[in-house]
Amino acid sequence: MHHRPPSARRHPTRRLPVSPAALLAAGLLLVACSPAARPVDRPAAAPSTAPVTTATTSPATTTTSTLPVSPAARLAAQISASETAIRDPGTPSSRLPALGRAQQQAYRAIIRQPKLLPEVLPLLPPALRRVAQANVMAGSELRRLSRPRPRLPQWRIVAPVPAAELLADYRAAEAELGVPWQYLAAIHLVETRVGRIRGISTAGARGPMQFLPPTWRRYGGGGDINASRDAVFAAARLLRANGAPGDMAAALYAYNHSGRYVRAVTAYAEQIRGDQRAFLGYYHWQVYYGDTLLPEGYPARPAGRSR
User: Fold this and answer.
1) Is the distance from CB of 176 to CB of 182 less than 8 angstroms?
2) Other C-beta atoms lying within 10 Å of the C-beta of residue 221
């Protein structure tokens, strides 16, 4: 929902600039595009007005009428359908990618047009209203952290580690270090879309959890900064050294010196804590830079060139 280069801070002993990785939720329009990255975010639920045909049938007559459907009604329907299905254990795993993307697109639409939120909320089932508020708040906070640059970033976008493997890593780190796994998952989501982004920030932060090399030397435990499991454990060590699990707000502030970052990560983590299947929706959120989708395989390379 907001996007920028991977984060450029990871040292708890000095104040660092706000992470460029938080632009993953910014939802701001870019000036530039490339053949491999395209402006998107016009889901079926995007703000527009379209007719819906209703039919009434009686033994004698059949009539049809066309009624307008508001943007808020479309977004509410999209959120309700995707959130309900994601949380349903009976939903086939093959449906989760499309559901996660529909969920993400609906929230991005509201973040771009905040006046829609009070119209959407009353149309949602009561149990989903706080869920929607939390996701919109988190995305809005991250959007405000910074703005994308005119040029698209020099990232590679790759497929993430399988969800089951990531969940096992988060839980193993919690078992060893006491940091709630939901916060590790939320940081991973915000930093690199659970490992989809491969890139180095302008300050030199790198890896799936975005560490500066000096901070990695302190918390990395001799592991590989680019390895998902090693990075998850290093993040847990950093958080533990700065107040986790007793004071997660202080620990998150040490990870990124921004109150907006703390609120956003906390909101995502609390959604996962409330229902761990929420992670399965977040896992399928895609990488955007402003309003430009950076799909898996970005940047595309011309045919005939070596990789």
Assistant:
1) no
2) 11
Which single residue is written with the structure tokens 């508001």?
70
What span, in angstroms and rounded, lies between the C-alpha atoms of 208 and 205?
A: 10
Query: Could you give the 3-state DSSP secondary structure of residue 5?
Result: coil
Print pLDDT tens along the chain (307 aa). Answer: 444 444 444 444 333 333 434 333 333 322 233 334 545 554 444 334 343 333 333 444 444 445 678 999 999 999 999 999 999 999 999 999 999 999 999 999 999 999 999 999 999 999 999 999 999 999 999 999 878 888 999 999 999 999 999 999 999 999 999 999 999 999 999 999 999 999 997 778 999 999 999 999 999 999 999 999 999 999 999 999 999 999 999 999 999 999 999 999 999 999 999 999 999 999 999 999 988 999 999 997 554 443 3
In the chain, domain spans: 20-46+72-294
What's the rounded Cα separation, in Å, for the pair 192 and 288?
Answer: 11
Buried (b) or exposed (e) across 83-119, using 16+ Cβ within 10 A?
Answer: bebbbeeeeeeeebeebbbbbbbbbbbbbbbeebbeb
